Known about the structure:
Layout: H1 5-24, H2 43-63, H3 69-72, H4 75-80, H5 97-114, H6 120-123, H7 137-161
Helix pairs in contact: 1-7, 2-5, 2-7
Amino acid sequence: MTLSRLELAIGQIRFSREYTQSLIADLEPSDWFRQPTEGVSHLAWQVGHLAMAQYGLCLFRMRGRADVDQSLMSSGFRKQFSKGTTPDPDPSKNPSPENICSVFNRVYEQAMLELPTFNDLVLDEVVDMPYAAIATKFGGLLFCSHHEMLHAGQIGFLRRLLGKAPVR
């Protein structure tokens, strides 16, 4: 059985999300803003960043803005978890872990709803910087799964620093 490029990308995105979900499933809300050592991020920023990035790579970059986007995440959420932002360990200056997970899940569900509607012509459309490796919309979808696995590694490291057992 040969998978299409789109099926391959969606399968990789699903795999990385299932893995990330397994890493955060047993974490307590009190763990989300702990920075176990100086210079290390926290779980809330990692998960919020993944939601923001998946929105950008799988939805916005694929089809531009849509009416549904306002219900996925606020512009403040996107700005707080963008690349280069500094995680704030003060829970009062962050969305709650429940809110972050809700955005994380809504963006993923919307991506899984919309991605199957795109065809090869759309996948081959060239994108402007920033991009990783391939300057097409297909390249952005592949990077989405790679990006999530990179941050899953950081979440796994944070788990260990918080005294949690490894998942794998």
